Amino acid sequence: MTGKTICVAGASGLVGANITRAALARGYAVNGTMRDTVAPDKVPYLQALEGSEMLSLFQADMAAEDGWDDALTGADAVFIACLIPTYKGPTGKPAKEMEDEQGYAEIIMPTVNGCLNIMRAAGRQGVKNIIICSSTSSTNPIPPVAKKNEVDHWSDADQQCRDKKYTSATKTVMEKAAMDLAARQDQRLVIMLPTLMLGPMVMPGHAQAGFMGQLAKLVRGETGRHQAVPNDSSSMAHIHDVAALFLAAYENPAASGRYFGVYDSWHWNDIYGVLKGLVPASGLPAPFEGEKAAPTGFDFKRRDSLGVNMRDIPTLLRDAVDWIKSDPFA
């Protein structure tokens, strides 16, 4: 038993639920926040986790600075995992169709302000350890580099907005605002940068979303995301390894700043090459023919300093497919 309490903001989300799962397994008491603490499609799955007698759920919304005190009282750290990507405004207008004023008001600032609201509430409660889930979308410099790292390489938020990529710009703006506030509040800040996360899921909603849902289609022999393999790459990691990185960064008092939360990036031809041996061929896309675009290059020195043994891409794909085939929520 650790004897420590942590707060997981967004405990029912993909990353938050897996941090909660891993933390309970290590003996932490977890104060998990949700917008709806009686949601029938979420709460029972959190309460079914091993060690859930140490889990307490609190209703809180990042849009409000108040309402966080109970969840943060006595916590040694807060994991902010509720900053999910926003692709549409309140009226349903896609972010890519917005101009800058609307993009900032409806896509960027709600997430930025939500993150800062939680950090300020943590500051009032004396919580000195802040661990944020962001994404690699904030680490794409112009011009691109052959191998990027977390310290030197940032996306240009202004250029992202000019390209109508307000959802990506959100992470860039949010991270810099969080760094500024953490410095002013004397908080240790860690920012984890994952992308595609696969593997066993905590609740059905996670298994049906994103590429996990597409993998389920492939397992059934149906067409997934791609009709033909794109000349592009994808960065990915096992979701359990991502959760382990979050906890490793928290548990190492010397850890601070940004860390990649990915294993590596592979061309989609190679990804589907692995899947070819795991799923029926009927749903697989036609391979890309021609000179393949180079996958994203990463410098993983900082990630590796956290001491987490990451599962490779063939292993994580096999684990995800095997889990889907087991029909875990039947």
Mean pLDDT comes to: 96
Tally of alpha and pi helices = 12
Radius of gyration: 20 Å
Oligomer: single chain
The description of the largest β-sheet is: 7 strands, parallel
User: Looking across the biggest beta sheet, what order are the strands in?
Assistant: 3-2-1-4-5-6-9
User: Strand content of the residues, in percent?
Assistant: 5-15%
Q: What does this entry look like structurally?
A:
Helix 1 (14-25) crosses helix 9. This protein has helices spanning 14-25, 43-47, 69-72, 100-124, 157-162, 166-185, 204-208, 210-219, 239-251, 268-275, 301-304, 313-325; strands at 5-9, 29-34, 55-59, 77-80, 129-133, 188-193, 196-198, 233-238, 257-260, 264-267. The mean pLDDT is 96. It starts with a strand and ends in a 5-residue tail after the last helix. The chain is of the alpha/beta class and 330 residues long.
